[in-house]
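step: validate -> pass
step: tokenize input -> pass
step: predict -> running
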Amino acid sequence: MEILLQPSEETLLAQMEKKHIPVETHCRSGICGMCKKRLLKGEVTYLEEPLAYLAEGEILVCCASATTEVVLDHQD
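step: predict -> pass
step: emit ->
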């Protein structure tokens, strides 16, 4: 499923929770990597630099905010 999110100072996780989109999380600070999603379109910035390992094209929604309209690949 693809998720469309708008530019905001809020984290992507906060936006997803407001839309009642379930996201698996644990630390909410970029350490555990549980909230990892594939960024299909757009640009994000990190409020806190994540410590979890990220492959090319992956982001952590707990500590990233959208600087442009973004599309995420969201698998339940």
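step: describe -> Residues 2-73 form a domain with the Ubiquitin-like (UB roll) fold (CATH 3.10.20.30).
step: cleanup -> pass
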